[in-house]
């Protein structure tokens, strides 16, 4: 292998990422190795300058003032950017927000990378975030919002999914994010239900496998690492792993048929990361969360699926992972086969537990070296070279790419299939929490040539994530579900439509259908009681 001289510290760096990683690992101390497997969050919108509130948060979390100091102190291999919103099902693990807009995120990530390159590893920082789109989306301002995964499932055209996710990847890369904790590879139950909902592509494992492949290719084609989650599958559970240990009760055969295919396809598509779920897969390792199961994270993931990338735990500040102190949980997760630990609740405790494990022999140094070698290989392979300009974020080209997926997802479950869906003026209503979507819908309808008035028109009722039967309006001419469509089974409206998403592009596509200017080619990827998957498509 031809070696290249490095600009940093006079080191000799191999052009081959794996060879380069193997060389770097030989120079790292135990403390360096322990730091490389940690991916906490930090408080503050910038790497070296934060307000007093963020300082206090960082002091409590890590005994430092800024994110850059946290990287330096703990020799971190990664950092996750977080954002809290009240209606996010994953919000409890995100106690702060450090993503505001694309320009700020790019400045933050640049500062974080500068701090990481000063460490002995001289390796890029792995900077991740949960940008699933739909209900779990960290960066919302100024970006091109993709519809939820379920909308892509409704469209049923993986080629459109790949193009949309490539646009997403270009925007994330422009902001300096190197890992997106997406796509969700979980297959949900036939009628939906459970925690995952519209974060899943749907209930058909084979169809989901094609969608996962497309999303991985799109993201990674733009230089951002995709992370499949939540292995071994969170779709056939009723519990929420943020609060308890959900149980997967399927037989081994049913699990392999219903849950495994999208993970297998994602691995075969080259996904760089697989995230372990805090899930009890009884058929494989009863009573043990997958994160801490060698049978699942090593025997199944490494041996059966032949995954060679980085395995990362789901957030270690979730209830099932807090069963033990941070140090013991870290060692258990590493021994199971995880390479990186996400959001440890006690960073020093996790680091010290790893070092104590090395000393006692409960964690073999070879296992830690293996984990860090995988992490460094991935980081060197995806090193940012030609970072896209920020102007790609929210660009008209991306709106066209993503808008094609939105248009293909719109699903009429009951009602007309051609021409304007209502005659005359309309009035758009929604629960108070949906005001932004309501205003967006009004503007989209007006731009499509539909007359909208404050009251007295044919009612278009918008409902979304978390809404229930009390949020429906029996007098509405059209009821639109902007999330998983199950609630439509309770609506008496003559026309029922699912967009699976409340994004501007989804509502723009919906307006075109209501105005009679576009068809509704989508089919619900889950069963909705009493309704066909589409009233318009066989």
Tell me about this structure.
It catalyses: Hydrolysis of terminal non-reducing N-acetyl-D-hexosamine residues in N-acetyl-beta-D-hexosaminides. Belongs to the glycosyl hydrolase 3 family. With 538 residues, the protein is an alpha/beta fold. It is built from 18 helices and 19 strands. The strands form six sheets. The protein has a six-stranded parallel beta sheet. Strands 15-19-18-17-16 form a five-stranded mixed beta sheet, with helices on one face. Helix 7 packs parallel to helix 8 (205-221), helix 7 packs antiparallel against helix 16 and helix 13 (326-336) crosses helix 14 (347-360). The longest helix is centred in the N-terminal third of the chain and has 17 residues, at 158-174. The N and C termini lie far apart (56 Å).
Q: Could you write a compact summary of the structure shown?
A:
Residues 63-378 form the Glycoside hydrolase family 3 N-terminal domain. The chain is built from 18 helices and 19 strands. It is of the alpha/beta class and 538 residues long.
Which characteristics define this entry?
538 residues; alpha/beta; Rossmann fold; six-stranded parallel β-sheet; five-stranded mixed β-sheet; 18 helices; globular; disordered N terminus
β-strand percent reads 5-15%
| Name given to the CATH architecture of the domain at 410-515 | 3-Layer(aba) Sandwich
Structural class: alpha/beta
Shape, please? globular
CATH fold description of the domain at 410-515: Rossmann fold
Total number of strands? 19
**Briefly, what CATH class of the domain at 410-515?**
Alpha Beta
Q: Round the Cα radius of gyration to an integer and report it.
A: 23 Å
Number of helices: 18
Sheet of most strands: 6 strands, parallel
Poorly predicted runs = 1-13
Helix content: 25-40%
Q: Mean pLDDT across all residues, rounded? A: 94
The largest sheet has its strands arranged as 4-5-8-9-11-13
Terminal Cα span: 56 Å
